[in-house]
Amino acid sequence: MHVPDGFINAPVSVATGALAAAAVAVSLRGARRELAGTGQGGGAGAERTAPLAGLVAAFIFAVQMLNFPVAAGTSGHLLGGALAAILVGPYTGVLCVSVVLLMQGVLFADGGLTALGVNITDMAIVTTVVAYGLFRVLVKVLPRSRRSITVASFVSALVSVPAAAVAFTALYALGGTADVPIGKVFTAMVGVHVLIGIGEAAITALTVGAVIAVRPDLVHGARGLTAPLELRTSPLTAADAAPAAAATPVPAPAATAPRRSVRRVWLAGLAAALVCAGGISYYASASPDGLEKVAHDQGIDAKARDHAAKDSPLADYSVKDITDPRLSGGLAGVIGVGATLAVGTGVFVVLRRRRNAADARPAADSAPAERV
225 pLDDT band (50/70/90 cuts)? Predict the structure, then answer.
């Protein structure tokens, strides 16, 4: 659903750019709390997700290369907002998808540069807000179990994709550059993206379910799923015990919680991303995705412009001057995963350090002055 340059006019593009910038600024503040493990639902589990945030962005980049067929002559791909929000939190999720869109636009000429605000608004903000809001509602009403988290992930991801299609239609109604009946755009966009949403839901549920199966503490949306460890105290002697007294459960101190490395999960996720981008992507559907198909059929692309980065050595997800399509596409995918991982990790490491520095400053200021 990457919107090219020329689909949306300048005023609406500027307005969505401002909205996207504001949302990213808010997400930067919120992500500090999520990555530092503070705020609602925070804790040790939240701290362990920090090294994974950059990997989530790289994984979304890789899986977005895997277009799957949804109808005759039409394909779809993961948007990733639901997956990112459930794994690492909604604020961090917005940043993950935004990093992916930035890298795709700058390096691979995928999604217009003047339309970057439109794409972040539609694919990062709308999908994350809709998916995570619905996910939290479902988690509250469903039984408290790992299966419920997976089911909630499936439903929220499914709904987030047609929601993004509705958002695009609204933006096109405000600033579309071609004279196309909005009713036709709405029907075509929502219809095909409901089908794409099924694929999105399956990928999201499978990924979340796989992580929950091995490390539920690393899934932001599953925090509180595991009952806290309790220590039971009992009387030393029967004489000291009251006749009706029972063993008293005492919550274990937070410091006694075991800290487990995320290295294996990180390496497994990176390997999966590299395999998807470097190998499986060669077998992805070559059909146009939902937006491309609708734009061609409805005439939305009448005033589309060439991408400013069309001469990039990685344009169209292939390495310039490498003639073998499998090698060219696979190498481009690997480069994209590495670049997205580096940029994403850099952003989240800086955010985490700034949060830790901010938390340490009040403690230092409140410390008593040393006597001379």
Answer: confident
Residue with tokens 């950059």: 54
Place of tokens 């290295």: 263
167-190 residue pLDDT tens: 999 999 999 999 999 999 999 999
- CA–CA dist 110, 102 (Å, integer): 9
Does residue 100 contact residue 61 with C-beta atoms inside 8 Å?
yes
Residues 6+ apart with CB under 8 A from 261: none
Tokens of 63: 């899986």
User: What's the whole-model pTM score?
Assistant: 0.88
**What single DSSP character describes residue 120?**
I
DSSP for residue 123: I
Two tokens at 211?
């992580």
Using the structure block, give the residue that is written with the tokens 């639902």.
41
The DSSP element (H or E) to which 100 belongs, if any, is helix 90-108
pLDDT of 130-158, one tens digit each?
A: 999 999 999 999 998 999 999 999 999 99
